[in-house]
Each structure stands twice: as C-alpha cells, then as structure tokens.
C-alpha cells in the first residue's frame, strides 16, 4: 500500500505518559498510521503522490474527540441572534431591539444562548421584553436548550393560551396564577408547540449550516465527536456529506429513546445499531433521566429552593430501568442525561440491576453529572459506567461565590459539589470531556482549558468554581483522546499514536500540556487530519 502522507520534524505526544515519543516522523496509508521513525527513514517511504508535510517541531496528538455534542440541531439553533454575551435584562432588551429593527414585516426573531442569570433571581419570563417584542413572533432559546421564551405573538400564533399536559413528565407551559402563559416553555414537548408554527430554514440551508459548523470544528482541532441525537434529517445529512467526501469529523451517533417507547420501539433502536457509513455509525442510545437545574426540571433527592426539580423526566422511572435492561442484554451502550443527584443515582441503580441479569460487558455512560454526593462517586468505577463531563458549563454558567441561578437553586451544600471531575477521576471512573455544543462552544482547547482552570471563559480574572475539582493538563488531554476512544469501544483504533491505529491527528504550534490553561484556547491549531487526510491546514504549513 502506497504511503499517502508523511509528517516530518514532528513532536509526537503520547497522552498516556505525557511524554514525547522517541520518533520524530510518521507515515500513513489507507487511513492508518503505517510507520513511525526518524525523518530520513519516513521520507524514504514517500513517492511523488505522497503528501509530505514538514511540521518544523510542531506537536502532534491523537485526534481530539468531543465526547458530547449535537451537530445538526446545534447548526440550526445557533443560526440567529446570539444572546450569550448578555449579562442583564437591559442588554437583552438592546440586543432584541437591534434584532427587531432588522426584521422584515411578519418575520420571526430567533435568539439563542440566553442565560437565566440575566434575570437576577426574578422570574424567567417574557414580560421584561414585551414592549420591544410587541407584535413580533420571537423564540429565545435559553442556554441549556431545554427551555425557551416565546413572545406573546408567538404563543398566539401557536394557539398556546394555557397549561397543557405532556408525556414528558417535566415538560410545562409555565403559567401565572391566572393560568396565562408567562412565555417560558420547559423541555422539548412544550417548546415544540411553538417551534412547529415557526418558519425553518430549508433542507438545503440546514445542510449547508451543518457542513459549515463541521468544517469549523475540524479547524478547531476536532477529528471526531459523540453525537447525542439522530433527530430529523441528522442521519441523512451525515450520509450525504460522507458520500460526498465532505464529512470532516468521525461521528458516533446515539438516537434518542423517549418516554412511551414500547417494545417495538426498543427493538427498532437495537436493530439500528451499527448502521452508518465510512465516517459515521449509529452506536448506542441516548436517554433523558431529567432536565436541568437552571429551569427546575432536574431530578434532585431534595427539591431546590423553589420547591422544584422533584421529578424524573420519565413519568414512571421504572420503565426507564426496564428499557436499560433490554438494551443491556442486547449489548447496546446507553448514554443517559442525568444532571441531578437523584437522576444519577437512578441510572446507576438501573445499570447495576441490568448487569446483575448477565450478558456481555457494555460500556454505559452518564452525561453531565452536575452535582452528586460522595456515596455516588465510587459506583461509576464499580459498575464500569463512564462519566461524561462538560467542564465549561461550570465555568461559564456558575460562579465561585454561588450567586448564580444554578447555585442558588441548589443551596450551598450541593453547589459545593459542582462538576466533580477530580473526585470522579480519583474514584477510578473513566472521565470523558465534551462541550455539549450548542450549549457551550465546541473548540476543544477551550473545553480542556476549562477543565484545568474552572474560571469564566469571558473573564479569566474571576475566581474558579471548585478549583479542587480541576484536572491536570494531561488528564484533560486524555479526556478528549484516550478516554473518548475507550468510551466508544475504540481503544485499539484511536486515542494514541501507534502503528496500526487511525491516522486521526491534531497538530499544535506548541505543547498543550505545558501551555498555561488560561492561554490554551489561543494555541494555534496548525493541522487536523482525518484518516490521514487534512481537514484543516494552517497557511503556515
């Protein structure tokens, strides 16, 4: 097999040891690393058709993998008015006013990234924006993507004029004491009431938005991602981009299993496993055990300060347990969204029960794990459950002094147990890192930096939230290489730079392990390789 790529003058970083390999050059063919050696040895493998890149001492790591992201929905949801930089109600009003001025008559206004902390403890509702949104149909997605604000005109067009009942136990059209909607919609089932009457981009526009987002992810150093949904046209888009040679990330996709899924639905999910193309495949099932703490839909062992977050997402949590058992026996890995302590405990209980029933080893995961008590930590390692964490959520949506909405809702004791990355790792758990984009930015250097400094990304002078839970630089790198590969059952395919593994590689201008955490997001990504082919190449190379 001819050599398709050689990298020369490279510093090859091993994320297991944190040391550079003794070799300084690499060859790839057929999408795999075929040789490691010195420059003359590897150069001799090249012919006229080989891509030869002299890295001039740049640092090569295994390709970075985002452990939790939503490419298709993220590409669509982040196409509109970005409200993530607003820190108070007045700034939101000003942003909305600018957005309204640019609207055509009758057009809808879409916003995303709204932080509930802008309301400073007051109710999250549209009332503060009624004047600026008078007569304008608007949907403002809160940062958690589990809730949104709909303007009065949007509610009117959707025919939403009072409370409703949903199959998702925590879904709600929030109403005032008189039964009038406040504009706040909780969870997908409620949000869809208004979303379905709002105009959407065309299919071609959505495909182009996705392709652009994936190209930007590759330019940020990502070679792969664990996509936590297969909704709508997602799988069709991945297939089309893959067949056209335009898919720049290797994607592992987990379709959703919602409350009310019957035995036939579970069999369909099992039958779907393994379907895919060259660079993507369906592997696993995503399930929600609760919502979010910020909007009062998490499942806590004790209610939050408003008396909320008391219920599971599933009206009957034992139905979730039965489905976990069915999927486990079929060898299907489950990735469960579980944010509150009661939710996490129930997931672990369900996995323990499923394992007791026998069957082969399956690598189940819990996503998010925002607050858990001490007695929960050890169970991850004992049950072989992977901890999938998003440290930038702690950095950017909470505060060290616990004056933020998340911390106020939980109270001091639970807020002090925020995103226990260090404790989970020390207890023996495999910790995978990700962004949960579009909830937080996808650049992996920012995710790894947040795991190390735990400070607000927009103001690194502010104190860290729970600095004792910080990871080392090497641990953070493992969370997006070795551990991410292990979570996908690909530890022999990816995650390290060795002969025979995939030539999925990320190249940096300097060593990410010795770059200060606060400087890491600005470290230049010089080259991203997928199957030995560049998906991003800096002009300096």
Automatic annotation (TrEMBL):
Pfam families: Amidohydro_3 (PF07969)
Domain Amidohydrolase residues, every copy: 52-535
SUPFAM superfamilies: Composite domain of metallo-dependent hydrolases, Metallo-dependent hydrolases
GO terms assigned for molecular function: hydrolase activity, acting on carbon-nitrogen (but not peptide) bonds
Keyword Acetylation: no
Keyword hit for Hydrolase: yes
Domain of life: Bacteria
InterPro entries, A to Z: Amidohydro_3 (IPR013108), Metal-dep_hydrolase_composite (IPR011059), Metal_Hydrolase (IPR032466), YtcJ-like (IPR033932)
Keywords noted in UniProt: Hydrolase
Alphabetized PANTHER family for the sequence: IMIDAZOLONEPROPIONASE, PROTEIN LONG AFTER FAR-RED 3
The protein's name: Amidohydrolase
Organism: Streptomyces agglomeratus
